[in-house]
Amino acid sequence: MTTTTFKRRNLAMAILAFAMFMDLMDVTIVNVAIPSIRDDLGASPAQIEWLVGGYVLAFAGVLITAGRLGDRYGRQRIFLIGIIGFTLASVLASTAQTGSILVASRVLQGFFAGLMVPQVLANVQVLYRPKERAPVFAILGVITAMAAVIGPVLGGWLVTNNPIGGEWRSIFFINVPIGIIIAVAGYFLVPNTKSEKVTDLDIVGVVLAVGGVLLLVYPLVEGRQLGWPAWSFVMMALSPVALTAFVFQQKRRTAEGSALIPLRLFGNRGFVGGSAIQFLFQGSITSFFLILAIYVQVGLGFEAITAGAMTLPFSVGAVLAAGVAAALTTKLGRTLPLVGAVMMSAGTAWTIQVIRSSDAAFSSWDTVVPMGLAGLGLTIMLVPLLDIALSTVDVNDSGAASGTLTTFAQVGGAVGVAVTGVLFFGEAGRYTQPELLHALSVAAWVPITGYALCALASFLLPGLGAVRKHAEEQERIADIEEARLAMQAPAPQ
Q1: How many CB atoms lie within 10 A of CB 185?
Q2: H helix runs in 162-303, sequence order
Q3: Quick one: 113 and 246 in the same domain?
Q4: Do 373 and 473 belong to one domain?
């Protein structure tokens, strides 16, 4: 299928993008419901971290394989399996009676969400010619940005107003009708495209990669409340061993042409820079909204809807910058992620300073300007990122590249939550307002530093000249392929 033969591609992309929005929003929608979940189910601090960390870790674990599954069996087929599974997992989460069942439900949600997202990014590469992809990636960048900030707002509204009953359970149940609509629309509108060059699935690689990350994240989440037993340090020491084994295993598989992550991708500066930014960004934003929601609700006694509304200036800033960032992508290129990351780091630091200076007298109005600044930076950084990071990747590697890129983001989210959780819950004491304020001040250095490192990583992204040269080459290849298919088509009777 060529990029011009599928007439309904924009409708298909709209369905895929909406599913991606729902998947990514579910990372942060749970944040403002955590105090309610803690009170209702008696969830421990570790279970609170796993509600977010378990989702993103399962998400990350399946992403790369999901890209290959889409290449092999068809992107529509894998997408539909993902959305149906995600919907069923949402039913399980909305009816959970214990913290353990809820965590397990979140892991299942993350797993099935991970099946869907690579199909979205790979379909951009397949359904659109190189010169057409920039605005599509810009829209996906806005969706990624908005999903992170709309989650707390929607979650706060659902928990406080309880429109469908069940208080915190509403944030999961709302996925059910939406998931059904997406599944039906996806069946009729999304094409079942496949890759022309398919590699074998690499189960050993998945085990080594996921195991390496889990060996780091699990002891960070569980070790603190258990008094840091010896096994926690042993697991963390084994993490780099497993990840090193993964690299060598992938080197061998690359030589055989069947790698989970083709190591040639890491010779691409744009891909490396984009992966680093995705890792650092997701770890920063996921952890920041988690600790902020806990502080303002548990420490200051804010309702969930008020805690969610605190992110509205962030959302407004992100929306206002979207059009400008999209228009400037082809003119400024990698300068935009640099500027956006600096704005996010500065806005986050400013927000924390305002909260500290206000102390117990803090009002959500106090952080309107710094949160708005961070929101502007979010869109300015993310809108051009996917286009730049994938712009010089060969279309036959699109499944693996898109899956890997998103995997780095979700692994970053899991690691960010784990590291921030160690600092925050370690300083939270008995959860009094002064103790929680101190914990917030200490833990916030993780996202502030993470955004600053995003700015440094932006220098790895390719300049406009390299992006344009590769796009021209891909256009030439696309023209040749269309001409070949036209010659092979049967003559009209």
Answers
A1: 18
A2: 170-173, 175-189, 203-222, 230-256, 269-294
A3: no
A4: yes
Would you say residue 492 lies in a domain? Answer: no
Digitized pLDDT (tens) for each residue of the chain, 493 residues in all: 444 455 678 888 889 988 988 888 887 788 888 888 988 998 888 899 899 888 888 888 887 788 778 888 888 999 999 999 999 999 999 999 999 999 999 999 999 998 988 888 788 877 887 777 777 877 777 777 677 778 888 888 888 888 777 789 999 998 999 999 999 999 998 888 887 766 677 888 889 988 998 999 889 888 888 889 999 999 999 999 999 999 999 888 877 777 778 888 888 888 889 999 999 999 999 899 889 989 999 888 888 888 888 888 988 888 888 778 777 777 777 888 999 999 999 999 999 999 998 887 888 889 999 999 999 999 899 877 877 787 777 766 766 777 688 788 888 988 999 999 999 998 988 889 999 999 999 999 999 999 999 999 999 887 655 555 555 555 665 555 556 555 665 555 5
| Sign, Cα dihedral of 263, 267, 268, 272 | positive
Q: Are residues 26 and 68 located together in one domain of the fold?
A: yes
One domain, residues 433 and 472: yes
Do 289 and 419 belong together in one domain?
A: yes
Which structural domain, as residue segments, surrounds residue 235? 200-258
In a domain, 491, yes or no: no
Q: How many domains does the chain have?
A: 2
| 247 and 145 within one domain | no
Residue recorded with tokens 């020491």:
237
- Whether the CB-CB separation of 315 and 285 falls below 8 Å is answered with no
